[in-house]
Every structure is written in structure tokens, then in C-alpha cells.
Amino acid sequence: MIKQRQRPTRQATASKPAEIAIASPVNAEAIRHLEEAIAGGQHWYIALLEAIGRWDTAEEIYNGRRYRYLIAGEAFDWLLLAERLCQAVDDRLPDNEKNALLFHGKPPLDLPERRFKELIGSIKYRQYLNYFYGVTVEEALIMAVQAEVRKEKRASGNYKAPDTTTEAYRRIYGATKAILLRRFRRDKGYPQLKTTTLTELKEFSYWLFQYRFKHSDKARVASDTRKALNWLKCNGFSRQSEEPDSKLESNNVPTAALARG
After folding, report:
1. Last residue in a domain, options 87, 103, 122
2. d(CA 253, CA 241)
3. If pLDDT is split at 50, 70 and 90, which confidence band does 24 have?
4. Listed residues 96, 122, 148: the one ending a domain
């Protein structure tokens, strides 16, 4: 289970994060297991998932970079942790397989869902689903609607580059991205900066996911979820495991992700 460490005030967290302790015997053991398992002949991907299952830190500072593995305390960015762990054994991994996993989400082994869940643990697996639906699918929904906007503009004879982002946000959430970002930062107690970070954008996507569920009916949620999943499939995104139930209804989405909506 990933443990959240005590964080500084919200304002301090958003503007200048405090250093986070990284000395964790559990994490050191996870890295040692990864190294020894690969040296012993185990497939590196299986060893990696086992190491992920042993990891217990939600965020850390490593080599001057901040890694936040748990978004909003409940959405597990497993590929970010995979990237971090791969650094410990980088010279032992096939570059093509490693890059396919880290950059395209394509694992080198096609594992059954239950096996993936066993290796990383049931708690992390639920947190992984929260991230998949709350960040990956939410971002895909925006891109899918942007594509619809571009198609409509071309069909109407308008070949000028349209502002697809503004229109997509209005269609999905009923407000522009700028307005929603200000609301998100106000809710979180973050400063209203002119720039943002990748970590904040992931947290913003998760907040949008919860906002959409709160302000949309179930039929619309289910329709939007199908649209986003279809976009991911058509654009070559590979999930680690397929949904056990192929029916894409709104109540298939992990309820833990909606608890704070």
C-alpha cells in the first residue's frame, strides 16, 4: 500500500514544494528485489510489477526531481513509478520494451487482469483504475471532442485552425478551460499562476473527472466514457488489462474515484 506522507500547507505545496524524505527501508527493499529478480532470470516486467507492489511512498524527491505517484490521494500513476524503478536497472532492460511501456503504455507481456492485480496488490490496483478513468480516460475524452470539433469545422467549409480546446471544454463541462482551472486551484488552495506543471495538469484532469460526474447524468457519463475509450483504442493506446466486463456503463467506473466529487 502506498502511504501518503504529511504534506505542507496547500499554498506551500503548490508554489514551492518542500523536500520530501526518501529514506524508506521498504522502498530500498523493493529496488533490491527488482535487481535480484532480474539477475536471477525473472522477466523484468514481472519483477517490476512485484517491486511496484512492494513500494510504499506516495511521492518523493529523487535526483532533484519530484515524483508524485498518487494523484489526489487515490489515483495511482503506475507508469511514473515504473519509470522511477526502471532507472535502477536501466542497463539490464531491453530499450525497445522499456520505451514501449513508459512512452506508449504497451507492456512486453500480455498478462491477465487478475495476474496484474496480484502482482501490484488489490489496493494499488483500485488506485490504478482510478487513475485510468480519472486521468487517462478524461484526457482522451477532451481529445476526442476536439477531433469532433475539427471535423465539424471542416465539414462546414471552415478550414481555418479552430480553437478546439475552448469548444471541447464548453461541450463537456459547460465552461472554458481557463475558468475551470481557476475553480480547481481555488478548491485546492493553489495560487493562480500563469504556468502549470505536468503534475498539476494530472491533478486537474482528475478534478475534471469528478466535476463531470457530479454535473452530468448517468447516460451522458456512460456515453462520454465509451467515446473516450474508443478514442484510446483507435489511437493505439494499450491498457495493461482489459475491462472484465465489456459493458461500458457509468457504474463500471471505480466508485472510490468519485467519493470526493
Report:
1. 122
2. 15
3. confident
4. 122
pLDDT at 171: 96
Based on the domain organization, do 205 and 243 belong to the same domain? yes
pLDDT confidence of residue 251: 46
pTM over 0.85: no
Place of cell 503534475: 199
Over 90: is that where the pLDDT of 243 sits? no
pLDDT at residue 237 is higher than 80: no
Number of structural domains in the chain: 2
Compute the distance between CA of residue 180 and CA of residue 208 in angstroms, rounded to an integer.
8
For residue 112 the three cell numbers come to 491477465
Domain span at residue 164 reads 128-258
Q: Find out whether 49 and 116 touch, Cβ atoms under 8 Å.
A: yes
Q: What gap in Å lies between CA 94 and CA 116, rounded to an integer?
A: 21
Residue 71's φ and ψ, nearest 5 degrees, are -85, 130
Do 81 and 136 lie in one domain? The reply is: no
